[in-house]
Amino acid sequence: MEKIKQNPIVKKVGFNRIVLCCVLVLMYILFSVTAKGFAGLPRILSALNYAYFLGFLSLGVTFVIATGGIDFSIGPVMFCAALVSGYCLTSYGLPTALCLVISIFVGFLFGCFNGYLVAYWTVPPFIVSMASMNIAKGLASVFTKTQSVSWPQAAEAAGWFRKLVKVGNFPVGLVIFLIVAVICSLILNNTRAGRYILSLGSNKEAVRLSGVDVKKWEMLAYVICGTLVGIAAIFFVGAYTTVQPGYGDQYNNEAIAGCVMGGTSMVGGLASVGGTVIGVFIISLLQEGILALGINKNYQLIITGLIVIVAVYADVVARRRKN
Fold it and tell me: Could you tell me the pTM of the whole model?
């Protein structure tokens, strides 16, 4: 095993990423054999629809976890952004483009709120994110008067935004998602902001003593996360139609699972955007496979929870060996 890990190609690509790719391929083969029609294009596109919004959530929370923090509000904030912007579209008649900007802005505001409380008020991230989760749910319910919001269909003039997800059978959303993932990877690995964000997770006090404004960079991680959550809302309504108040919690664990499975350490200091992308595809394929087999969706929650436990335990073992 050690010889394989020391192979130049394996070291460059990453052993964890190779393993995850193998798992993804094996899952696809397994579901294709056991579920009739799973190998068809409709199932693949359906899995991708799920992967887009979940992927943006995972990319966002990758930045937060890299600092050693956590954000359990990403799912409800995504729903809040989709509901507020959707209500502006359907009830107030605002232009579609403006409503998409509102969606991103709502996520951005929550990112600023979370980041400021964590970085400048030193409130524990867990408490902040739990509070934001409730605020997002309440705000969405109040704004929409507890009504669900149905976004326009592709055939309607205002439904042009659905082309961001797919045009015909071409997955436009996949191209956009991968481009954003590359940008996130460049920010995290090739910029000063990314280096400081990762350093905060490794040793925040040492970074502070070296003269770095740790509060600014820690807040930036949450702002990036919130912005990506706002984008996730756009792709959620682009793939689906109706958004209901009070939901979104179920996507928190899935997004974090994809992130941690991909190699991002829960204690911070280590993050892999490429691993997060593969982890998201695994979670999405698992969700689609369970639906194709006709199994109760609750089993996916059980499997996702187990994946988080295994991924975190593997990270703990790896750190012990390294130390």
Answer: 0.94
